[in-house]
Design brief:
The protein is about 5% helix and about 40% strand. The protein has about 260 residues and is mostly beta strands.
Length: about 260
């Protein structure tokens, strides 16, 4: 059993489920994520994304909670908008990442995992999930094309005909407001899913307490000359070719003493 000591200054994720079911959420045109994630750990931050001929300042809120099966992740990112440059006609997707130093040793090693959610925004899009997609884990491992390790998509470790093992749970929704450029996301990530054990390092057992380093990142489509439209909290790491996680803040998920209603 892994029962980590909680360090001073760590962020403790509370026991809490979203107040609405996934079916209720996806049937709504929009919703108040503050109300849906009332009682969650709420992290307020501001991202400054350097783009061509300027910057995007994005005041943001990230919400974290858990039950015995899932980590719930929410986010509200104000002023992203769909295109960070007028030099390309195509729209660049918005994305959100949360990375984990699962071993909490300050050094990333295979197969430490994170989760990524991209929101593809068409001009004129407004508040619906058909403009979004989600991915299975990102995996820290040796690149087949680069001389060092990087965060890679989990499907890189499956044959072309195999079904990737997804780490996203039963919640997934993403909304976009075309008038304000606000992106809202809500999803759940398995705390333990044996089906994804090959790559998913969040394999907690009931009665365990894990302390992990974590880092949050938002940005735009990573392709070609537009690869560095990104910022991170508490600091920027992209293009994340370093395995140094020693300065990441600490996140606590504690399954040792579930409150009533969560057993």
């Amino acid at each position: 059993m892994r029962i980590d000591t909680i360090p001073q200054g760590a962020y403790i994720v509370p026991w809490m489920r979203p107040s609405l079911s996934f079916d209720e959420i996806t049937s709504m045109t929009c919703y108040d994520i503050d109300a849906v994630m009332t009682g969650a750990l709420k992290l307020n931050m501001t991202f400054t994304i350097n783009i061509i001929n300027g910057t995007r300042v994005v005041p943001s809120t990230v919400y974290l909670s858990h039950d015995k099966n899932y980590l719930y992740v929410g986010g509200k990112f104000r002023g992203m908008y769909e295109n960070p440059t007028t030099t390309v006609k195509r729209t660049l997707s918005n994305y959100f990442n949360i990375y984990f130093d699962v071993a909490n040793d300050g050094i990333l090693t295979f197969p430490e995992s994170g989760s990524m959610l991209g929101v593809y925004v068409n001009p004129g899009a407004c508040w619906r999930t058909e403009f979004a997609w989600n991915y299975e884990d990102l995996v820290w491992s040796q690149s087949r094309t680069l001389p060092h390790s990087v965060w890679l998509m989990g499907y890189s470790y499956y044959s072309p005909n195999a079904q990737p093992a997804f780490a996203i749970g039963n919640y997934f929704d993403a909304l976009y407001d075309n008038s304000t450029g606000t992106v809202i996301i809500l999803y759940s990530k398995y705390l333990c899913n044996p089906a994804t054990s090959e790559i998913n390092m969040l394999q907690m057992r009931q009665g365990e307490r894990w302390v992990m380093g974590f880092l949050i990142e938002i940005g735009y489509d990573r392709s070609g000359e537009y690869v560095d439209f990104v910022d991170g909290w508490p600091h920027k790491i992209y293009p994340y070719s370093s395995n140094d996680a020693s300065t990441w803040p600490k996140l606590v998920i504690d399954l040792t003493n579930p409150p009533p209603g969560f057993t």
